[in-house]
């Protein structure tokens, strides 16, 4: 399938419209709306990646795999059951591995990976300390593994940007990291609509930004 950058704008607008409907469903606690709007929004960022040329290069294919895995995670997190949450966590973890692989394909500046990694490890430890009292014992290993993987992904995004990649790589990865704080707060610390009102737009924005980086390849 040939890239179609001209289709990216309408597909992006479709995704943002689905996110708006999703937020309405969240605000109204209307599950039928959530169950339709969330998968559509996630399908939206996948189609943006394909329009950007995801099928035509190794970098794009790796990003597409990451986005599909994240979309699977999105569907899993429609349920609040522990089993579905862990399935979603696993899908997102694999998604971060795929993003990390994409950044390595892009090429990374090792010095930037290491220096940003040092700072990010400090942030990750603060996040872990914040979450640990709230995370059930049976989930702690999974949550710790997730924190490690997403931290490595963000460090690699900094290295990829420093090596000549578009700054959107690092911007999307950082936004993804921040959006996950809303998920953690919602799941473990203090559930509430406010988590979703800022976390969901940031998450979908991050995915759209990361999908758009394919055009540079």
In words, what does this structure look like?
The structure is a single chain. The chain has helices spanning 8-28, 31-51, 58-76, 82-106, 110-131, 140-162, 168-189, 193-212. The mean pLDDT is 96. The longest helix has 25 residues, at 82-106. The chain is 80% helix and 0% strand. It is mainly alpha-helical and 217 residues long. It is built from eight helices and no strands. α2 (31-51) runs parallel beside α8 (193-212), α6 (140-162) packs antiparallel against α7 and α7 packs antiparallel against α8.
Unreliable spans are none
User: Biggest sheet, in brief?
Assistant: none
- Put simply, the count of helices is 8
Class by alpha and beta content = mainly alpha
Residues in helices, as a percent range: over 70%
Topology as a string of helices (H) and strands (E): HHHHHHHH
The span between the termini is 15 Å
Mean pLDDT: 96
Strand content range? under 5%
Radius of gyration, in angstroms, nearest whole number: 17 Å
Identify the overall geometry: globular
Strand-helix topology:
Blueprint: H1 8-28, H2 31-51, H3 58-76, H4 82-106, H5 110-131, H6 140-162, H7 168-189, H8 193-212
List keywords for this structure.
globular, mainly alpha, 217 residues
Short description:
The chain has 217 residues and is mainly α. It has helices spanning 8-28, 31-51, 58-76, 82-106, 110-131, 140-162, 168-189, 193-212.
């Amino acid at each position: 399938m040939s890239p179609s950058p001209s289709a990216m704008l309408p597909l992006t607008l479709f995704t943002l419209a689905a996110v708006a409907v999703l937020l309405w469903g969240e605000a109204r606690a209307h599950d039928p709306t959530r169950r339709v709007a969330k998968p559509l929004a996630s399908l939206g960022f996948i189609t943006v990646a394909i329009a950007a040329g995801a099928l035509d290069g190794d970098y794009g294919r790796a990003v597409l795999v990451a986005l599909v895995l994240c979309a699977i995670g999105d569907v899993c997190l429609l349920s609040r059951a522990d089993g579905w949450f862990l399935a979603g966590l696993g899908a997102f973890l694999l998604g971060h591995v795929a993003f990390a692989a994409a950044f390595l394909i892009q090429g990374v500046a090792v010095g930037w990976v290491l220096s940003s990694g040092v700072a990010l490890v400090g942030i990750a430890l603060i996040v872990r300390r914040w979450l640990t009292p709230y995370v059930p014992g049976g989930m702690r290993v999974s949550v710790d593994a997730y924190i490690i993987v997403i931290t490595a992904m963000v460090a690699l995004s900094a290295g990829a940007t420093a090596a000549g990649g578009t700054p959107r790589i690092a911007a999307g990865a950082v936004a993804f990291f921040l959006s996950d704080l809303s998920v953690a707060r919602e799941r473990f610390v203090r559930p509430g609509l406010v988590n979703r009102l800022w976390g969901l737009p940031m998450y979908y924005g991050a995915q759209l930004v990361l999908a758009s980086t394919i055009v540079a390849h």
